[in-house]
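Q: what sequence does this backbone want?
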């Protein structure tokens, strides 16, 4: 089998943390006196914490001083971390381990490519950290998805050419980042949302090992 690089987004691909991000942003919005819906939360997927707060304040029509902005960023994260604290392996999304085990068994390098600054502790909590040959997260990048930076650094750390990398993503910005990096993008979610993906699966239970084997052999 040839050597490919497999790069996974974290939130919404490996674990369903989007609901915790949502609850923490909603709490802040409510404290500031406005509503924040699950539908609006879709815009936050794959987007950095700072950009999320900017969008949230635009939604609420709230103007912030730099000091307030910084405080709210911290408040949201403290709240989010309370949910993360309680996470365990039961929160790994279906069949993620099936895919990771297959890749390890076939000696394929695996990287994380996430916008989150909390990526490493989350992988530790759910017990998946040891699968990853490289971790590229919100602490290692300067440019947010859809910029390809996060995935290009991951490919580099794996020692694999970008065009030989396969990215698993649940966010529109993430799929765009993968395509901007000249990689194959596999969308995890809805076909009509992740339209720029090369393939889309609702979740990993729909992605067969035969399909994965085909990608490795390509
Ligand atoms: C992404 C999430 O993975 O990480 C976004 O999809 C989130 O919703 C971003 O805002 C940053 O996460 P964190 O953990 O650094 O606040
Ligand atoms: Mg995601």
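A:
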């Amino acid at each position: 089998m040839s050597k490919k690089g497999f790069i996974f987004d974290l939130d919404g691909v490996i674990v369903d943390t989007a609901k915790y991000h949502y609850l923490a942003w909603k709490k802040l919005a409510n404290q500031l006196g406005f509503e924040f819906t699950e539908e609006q939360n879709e815009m936050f997927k794959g987007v950095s914490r700072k950009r999320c707060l900017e969008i949230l304040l635009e939604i609420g029509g709230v103007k912030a001083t730099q000091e307030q902005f910084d405080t709210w960023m911290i408040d949201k994260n403290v709240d989010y971390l309370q949910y993360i604290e309680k996470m365990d392996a039961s929160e790994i999304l279906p069949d993620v381990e099936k895919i990771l085990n297959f890749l390890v068994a076939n000696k394929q390098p695996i990287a994380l490519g996430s916008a989150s600054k909390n990526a490493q502790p989350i992988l530790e909590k759910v017990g998946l950290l040891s699968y990853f040959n490289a971790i590229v997260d919100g602490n290692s990048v300067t440019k947010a998805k859809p910029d390809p930076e996060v995935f290009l650094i991951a490919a580099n750390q794996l020692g694999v050419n970008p065009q030989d990398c396969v990215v698993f993503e649940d966010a529109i910005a993430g799929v765009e980042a993968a395509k901007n990096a000249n990689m194959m993008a596999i969308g995890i979610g809805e076909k009509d949302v992740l339209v720029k993906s090369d393939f889309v699966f609702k979740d990993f239970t729909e992605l067969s090992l035969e399909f994965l084997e085909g990608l490795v052999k390509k």
